Amino acid sequence: MQPLFSVDSIKKIERNFAKQEGIELYELMQRAGASAFEQARRLWPQAGHWLIATGAGNNAGDGLVVARHALLAGFDVTLVAIKPYREFRGDPEKAWQELLSIKKDSHQRFDILGLEQALDTDLSSADLVVDALLGTGVKGALKDEYCQILERLNQLSRPKLALDIPTGIYADSGLCSTKNGKDTVFQADATVSFVALKTGQRLNQALQYQGELILETLGVRHALSFGEEPEAYGCNLQQLKEKLPTRHDVGSKFDCGHALLIGGGAHLGGAVILAASAALKSGAGMVSGWIHHSQQAAGLSVCPEIMWRGYNSHSDFQELADLSRYQAVGFGPGLGRDSTAEQIFLDVITKLQATDIPCVLDADGLYWLAKYTSVPLPVQSVLTPHAGEACRLLNAQEEDVFSTGRIEPQLSVDTAYVTQNRIKVAQTLAKKYSAICVLKGAGTVISDGEQALVLAGAHPAMMTAGLGDALTGLITSFIAQGAKPWDAALLATEIHYEAALSVAANRRRGVTASEVIEGCSILVNQLDQVIN
Ligand SMILES: NC(=O)C1=CN([C@@H]2O[C@H](COP(=O)(O)OP(=O)(O)OC[C@H]3O[C@@H](n4cnc5c(N)ncnc54)[C@H](O)[C@@H]3O)[C@@H](O)[C@H]2O)[C@@H](O)CC1
Ligand SMILES: Nc1ncnc2c1ncn2[C@@H]1O[C@H](COP(=O)(O)OP(=O)(O)O)[C@@H](O)[C@H]1O
Ligand SMILES: [K+]
């Protein structure tokens, strides 16, 4: 697993590492520039003319080190200096002096352009664009001169490399600077990040703009050994594959878990049908679906392998609800927000509390949870909110309303807050509800209140209804098959994302949840072959 640190922590790690090694921070700048130069050469060996744009801080210093290596290797270099080099102080100044001191081949091109010159010059002779404008030191919206040069650089149809982080991305949140509603950010094909990954590099717009993310530790092999707590950890499917419950050749459907999906109120059948299909296709031995009777025929026609039972009112639930035969319950997709749904919510949650069956709560299940925020959830519940649902859950007042009646949440934080504080929100929700929280979005954050993991990434095709229902079905299915809820949440989130990527192929739009469910089935079976 890969630790993700705040910018403050990274700065402390750098300082402590330098102290421990008895080196200057300037040495780290040297290593940063040298390693970025090598990565750029590896990625784009044909590049003979390097355009390097520098800002005003240490990120600019890194860029000047890259420039020196490029010149020493015999390449042409054009520097775009937003701040004049004569005004540099400290390590960037040293990098500038060292660059000046090297001997160049007389045929080599070495130009330095200020902002105005750069905007007036045809820069298309460059083969590679290097962003050394701003790194982790950016604060607030980008100044105009940075916006102007970024627009120019982004227009160049040349490979683009960002040093440490693309200019305009905030390293703690992964959000980016905007101006007049437009993102003002360097659009990198690759980013060489230094020392350790920053939390924001797994979240939000960073996922869209950083391209391939390459970590160069600069010798800091054990970032965890400097007393700085990571904010979260990143991991990938490879690291999670062992969490897939094993399956034997001999046995029966009763050994492979019985998952129950509850939802699909009147007119709202699709969501629970998708969730139940996902549970079945990802390997649950049996799947039952409780759905409004008006939707039952639809469920049967889409997936007759699922044992659909229709309800008409909440009183049917008292009759239906013998939960002991299920190993996991997914509750909420399409449940509805009427009084029947409310009563079903209370009945089912009350019944589940008396069992040790883990419950995955999603969609309208979360809506009702926010109204009955003090209702004790079954042990090991998993909540799967998107940003809007997270707001509602966060804002719901903590008081004993279970006995006194429901409350109307009073909104105070909004989705912008959730997006900016994804790790903290997932941790807070997990603590508040004593559950595992899967905060969905670009970079899904999973927390049990203490640890936080960031999984999956961003893909435009995933912004489509029904994918959340599929995820609920997948988590429920893995729990039913024997995974611990925490492991099931991690595995399902990553499989769901990887499946969406492979199903989408080159498509950015029009990918359906049903296709992703098929993709999940394929991926689960590929993993099965690896572990069995
Ligand atoms: N500290 C270290 O030991 C190392 C730092 N390194 C590099 O140093 C970078 C961080 O350096 P700094 O902290 O100097 O920060 P930056 O180089 O990212 O930027 C700081 C400068 O940007 C200006 N600035 C801030 N917000 C701005 C905005 N919105 N619009 C325009 N200008 C803005 C500041 O006034 C300051 O001059 C890292 O990203 C990394 O590239 C590397 O050299 C590795 C070692
Ligand atoms: N831009 C995106 N990049 C990556 N994943 C995304 C993106 N947008 C949504 N997702 C994922 O798609 C799913 C959508 O869930 P949700 O919003 O609950 O949709 P629905 O309720 O319609 O099924 C979640 O797993 C979420 O993480
Ligand atoms: K940068």
From TrEMBL:
Specify the signal sequence span. none
YjeF C-terminal domain location: 236-527
Reactions that this protein is recorded to catalyse: (6S)-NADHX + ADP = AMP + phosphate + NADH + H(+); (6R)-NADHX = (6S)-NADHX; (6R)-NADPHX = (6S)-NADPHX; (6S)-NADPHX + ADP = AMP + phosphate + NADPH + H(+)
Instruction: Give the residues the record marks as binding K(+).
Output: 59, 131, 167
Keywords associated with the record: ATP-binding, Isomerase, Lyase, Metal-binding, Multifunctional enzyme, NAD, NADP, Nucleotide-binding, Potassium
Annotated (6S)-NADPHX binding lies at: 135-141, 146, 164, 271, 334, 386, 469
**In UniProt terms, what function does this protein have?**
Catalyzes the epimerization of the S- and R-forms of NAD(P)HX, a damaged form of NAD(P)H that is a result of enzymatic or heat-dependent hydration. This is a prerequisite for the S-specific NAD(P)H-hydrate dehydratase to allow the repair of both epimers of NAD(P)HX.
What NCBIfam families does its record include? yjeF_cterm, yjeF_nterm
Please give the name of this protein: Bifunctional NAD(P)H-hydrate repair enzyme
